[in-house]
Amino acid sequence: MKKLKKIPKFKSEDEEREFWATHDSVDYFDWSKGRWMILPNLKPSLTTISLRMPNYLLDELKVLANSRDVPYQSLLKVFLAERVQKELNALVAREGKVDYSVARMPRKRKKASPTAKRPVKRLHKPA
């Protein structure tokens, strides 16, 4: 039996995700001692987004969702998850790995120009 490596302490979930994306768990766990568990209270991290789409596309999505008797938002998530997985598989086949750090990079916000005029709130009418 080979000696298992010690799992490092992680400062964040993102750091842990990056670690496991680039390391093999076989070096850290003895999977022959593993057992099945049910985690009923585990909830995935969710982010609310605003998505603009053409009316016809939303209408067609609602028709498909209605025919399957599911909410259209749920069907959209299924379709999106399937397509993202397909694209990631193609990326791995092409490049050999996926760089998840790109997805977690914070967006740069545009700073207001120092010369931009800000609206002035008037407390009283000018005389």
Low-confidence sequence ranges: none
- Helix share of residues? 25-40%
Which structural class do you get from the secondary structure elements? mainly alpha
Mean pLDDT over all positions: 82
What is the global morphology?
elongated
Termini separation comes to 89 Å
Percent strand equals under 5%
Task: Give the biggest beta sheet.
Answer: none
**What order do the SSEs take from the amino end to the carboxyl end, as H and E?**
HHH
Question: What's the number of helices?
Answer: 3
Over all CA atoms, what is the radius of gyration? 24 Å
Number of strands: 0
Structural account:
The chain has 127 residues and is an all-alpha fold. The protein has a domain at 51-100. Helix content is 38%, strand content 0%. It has three helices and no strands. The N and C termini lie far apart (89 Å). The mean pLDDT is 82.
